[in-house]
Design brief:
With 229 residues, the protein is an alpha+beta fold. The protein has 2 domains: 30 residues; 195 residues, no CATH class. It contains 6 helices and 12 strands. A hairpin with a 4-residue loop joins strand 8 and strand 9. About 5% of the residues have low confidence.
Amino acid sequence: MRLIFIVLFLAIALRGYEWISTSHNTPWAPLSLTDPIGPFTLRKIDALADDYRLCQSLLENAGRKFSTLPPVRQNADCGYDNGVALENGEGMNYSPAAKISCPVAAGLVLWEWQILRPAAFKYFSAQVDEIITYGGYSCRRINNAKEGNYSEHASANAIDIAAFRLSDGHIISVASHWNSANEKAAFLKEVRDGACEVFATTLSPDYNAAHADHLHLDQARRGGRSFCR
């Protein structure tokens, strides 16, 4: 009995060592956008809001082409100083290209490679050629209200995704296919769930009517926690 206990203890200890020695599973290892998504990935992305240069270098090291954007300050509530635009031409294209904060771009790169691509192949044996957006930066309040808090869009810290065009020509639309009882709905829900791992806030038609036609993804400062609906 004692020998069995020792064997079990050693097996558990070995498993724990294997887990903790994998960089993406530890809180102290530097973030890499080519590593698998781990339990501390979102917390590390959150820290990029304070280090624009590090965020840019992560995009560069991942081989994702992007353009840096000049600082914008429209008023006390609208503007950004860490903006980028992911460039089209290699892999997934954003249409129209969105002005977003660098931490949002970091989340999108992880989402592209580790969530979208596998899901598109799983359900359709195809690639995602185009991500159709409703844009990123927009100087407005939440839900375009006349009063209240400003949206994360007002600091380029959010992007809205409306649809996906696949390499086989199919278009999968949040508005048209979210409630369908088929693989298109399953794909949309899987990429929504995956987004929750790399974005602080992920909102879908399941949240409210204002999001009936898109996925809202943002990197609001939540201390490495996510709000997913």
